[in-house]
Structure formats: C-alpha cells, structure tokens
Amino acid sequence: MRKLKLGVAGLGRAFTVMLPTLARHPRIEVVAGADPRADARLRFAADFGASAYASVEELCDDAAVEAVYVATPHEQHARHACMAAARRKHVLVEKPMALALQDCRAMIEAARSGGVHLIVGHSHSFDAPIRRAREIVESGAVGSVRMISALNFTDFMYRPRRPEELRTESGGGVLFNQAAHQIDVVRLLGGGRVRSVRAATGSWDSARPTEGAYSALLTFADGACASVVYSGYGHFDSDEFCGWVGELGRRKDPDSYGSARRLLQRVATAGEETALKNARAYGGPEYTAQDVAAAGAEPTWHQHFGLVLVTCERADLRPLPSGVMIYEDLARRFDPLPAPDVPRAEVIDELYAAAVLDRAPLHTGEWALATTEVCLAMLRSGREQREVFLEHQTGVGER
After folding, report:
1. What is the rounded CA–CA span in Å between residue 184 and residue 176?
2. Stretch 178-196: mean pLDDT
3. Closest CA to 305 of 376, 232, 368, 378
4. Residues above pLDDT 70, as percent of the chain
5. pLDDT tens digits for 274-324?
6. Coil, strand or helix: which one is 360?
7. What would the pLDDT profile of 104-160 be if each residue is shown by its tens digit?
8. At what angle do helices 77-86 and 101-114 cross, to 10 degrees?
9. Cα–Cα distances in Å, from 200 out to 197, 268, 377?
10. Nearest residue to 366 via CA among 117, 71, 125
11. pLDDT per residue over 365-389, tens digit each?
C-alpha cells in the first residue's frame, strides 16, 4: 500500500492528541516535523526516525513531504497553511481553521492556486457515531431533522495555558477552541446551512479573561434549529452522560474530579503556568504519554464531544461512544459500531483519499469557513446581544 508522506508543523497539544493516529495508521508515514522547542524536536526524531526542523518553512521545503499537518498556534494557521500550499503540499489544518474569514478565504485560494487539497480537522464531526447518525438521517428512515441539542461541560479553562491562550483576540477561549467542534457536529447533522445565530457568552473568571462558556440557538435554512451549550469552568462533567468515557474515547475516573484546578495550584504567575505547560508538553520533562509504538492501544470507544440528541420527524438519535441509540415511536434500539482500531482514523482516511486518490473531501476549506463564520457570529451576538445572520454557509457535500 502506498503511504502518504506527512510533515507535522507544530508538536504541541494538538499533535500529541493526534500522535496515536499518526503512529498507527497504515496509510501514513511521518517523515518530518517542525517546532521551535529543541526538546520536542529531539523526542520527535527519536520517536519517528524523521527529520526535525526549527521552522515550518524548512519543513515545507523538504521534498520528501507530500502533505503538511498544520498544528501550530491558532493565529499561525493561515500563514502556515498558505506556505505549505504554495509549495504544492496538501494541507490538513487543525481547528479552528483561522481567526478571521479573510484568512480562511486566503487559505482556500492558496490551495486552489497550488492545485492541492485543503482539509480542516480534527473536529468531532469526523467521529464515526456522528457520521453514522448523519447516514441514518440521509437514509430517510427517520424523516427530516427538526431540532438538535448539544451540551458539553469540561474543565477546559483550567488546563495549563500560555498567556495568548487566554486572550480572545489571539484565538483563546472556548469560542475558537471548542465551539468549532460543536458547531461542526450540529452542522453536519443538520445539513450544514445555518441561517442565523443568537448567543450569550460567559467570561466569569478574572484570572482567565476570555470566554469560558456559551449558550446559543442556531436556526437552519430549512427551519430546523440547534441549541448548543458549553462550559469549560470545571464543575459538572458531562462525561457522566457518556458512561464516563472521556472525549478521547478512554475510560475516565470520576474520582479525578478537580484535578485540573489542583494542578494549577502549583503555579503563581503566568510565566510559571507557561513553564508547567511546556514541561508537560511533548518532549518536556513531565511528558508522560505512552511511547510512540504503543500509543493508541488503550482506547476502546469512539471519541465524542458531549451529549448530542438529534430530534427527527419519526425518531430521536443519540450518538454514543459505542454507536447510535435510536428512539422510535414504539421501541428503542441500538445501532452498534465496532471499536476503532486506530483513534481518529477517519481524519487520515479523508486526507489520504483526497491527496492520493483525488477524492473530494467533506471537511473542505469552504466547509470550515462556514463553521468559522458561525463561531465568529456567536462571539458577535454575545457582545452585541442580538441575532446575527450568516452569508457564507454551505451544505453537506457541496463543492
């Protein structure tokens, strides 16, 4: 089987979450990586036997690299994606696609000019249970989608952060980091075309001065609606609704409650918090992930993004880490999915099909621009306390 030769731009948190996928997926070969941290480069070269560069530009100039996974800080996504596309490398860019719609458009144009595919992910709309729920809707068996309810409560705000991760204008806070997941999920389930947004946002901790929560109502062009709720303030944990299976598909210990806040008690300043994050990052002295050969062996469930309910004309659908519950008029039944052999395999499957087989991807730049438009509209609606109408939406599978 021909393998796609991948370079990784940025060896931070997003990379470590994708590391089990990159290490075990049979269609990918990681041949290069880039990061300004020397300790990360040393660890990467040892783990993958690959080239390690101090700059993304050097990575993109490597002739062995066919595709670049852009996992650098959010404000750098547009520049690095355009840099890779200009060198005719296919691009997989982490969510959020960018921080402004003009940057999204520049990325799309760069990929078009370079004759390469641009895919935006990982978002949780890649997850197999979400895709299966969409297949059930598209089959016509349960009628049209009328309403979607999505809820997720986490400790996101109290994980170690760099200062810019707590500034909205730098891409910090939950509207850029987490809403991109939730909006992608409800757009996929609802057909894609959001008509308007009415949102309220919350910034309730002066020590973490960015949005940590939101509640929004989305209306779709066909009359369906979606309510999306997220809190990252580390009290209730909605994984309780998913059988204590965490977002990454691993069993969670309920007795770990409060662990994120307890960890932050080790630091007193922003500099100490940055040092703590770096120490726990890939290549750092406190990095405790499994070695690359074993990475990914643990999860036995699909990943998820909290509670999701899809209300259709003739049934309700509930994606779960192990399949989809279907609640019909007179009975309920479970549509199981096999456990994933490789976590997040769907991301690499879509990249491979586009880059090697030239198949049009689902998570295109145009799709991600529409998701970004919704997230920005949520921010605007919360600030201006009004409904915001959208202009750049696209349907599922539209090109």
Report:
1. 12
2. 98
3. 232
4. 97
5. 999 999 999 999 897 644 444 445 668 999 999 999 999 999 999 999 999
6. coil
7. 999 999 999 999 999 999 999 999 999 999 999 999 999 999 999 999 999 999 999
8. 10
9. 10, 31, 11
10. 117
11. 999 999 999 999 999 999 999 999 9
Residue-level length of the chain: 399
Residues 80, 72: Cα–Cα separation, whole Å: 8
Q: What is the per-residue pLDDT for 289?
A: 65
- Give the whole-angstrom CA distance, residue 44 versus residue 68: 16
Q: Helix, strand, or coil here: 304?
A: coil
pLDDT at 297: 52
Q: How far apart are CA 357 and CA 250, in angstroms?
A: 32
3-state secondary structure at position 243: coil
Decide the pairing of beta strands 332-336 and 118-120. Answer: unpaired
Cβ atoms within 10 Å of 217's Cβ, excluding its own: 15
């999306």: which residue's tokens? 228
Q: At 217, phi and psi to the nearest 5?
A: -115, 125
Q: Sheet of 90-93: strands edge to edge?
A: 51-53, 28-34, 4-9, 67-70, 90-93, 118-120
Place of tokens 């009628």: 143
| HSE-up (13 A, CA, CB side) for residue 212 | 19
CA 46 to chain centre: 27
Distances in Å between the alpha carbon of 70 and those of 12, 177, 239, 346? 11, 15, 29, 17
Which pLDDT score, from 0 to 100, does residue 288 have?
78
Q: Is the peptide bond before 73 cis (omega within 30 degrees of 0)?
A: no
Structure tokens at 325: 């519950």
CA atoms lying within 13 Å on the CB side of residue 321 = 23
Cβ pair 53, 59 in contact under 8 A: yes
Q: Which of 112, 53, 117, 121 is nearest to 89 (CA)?
A: 117
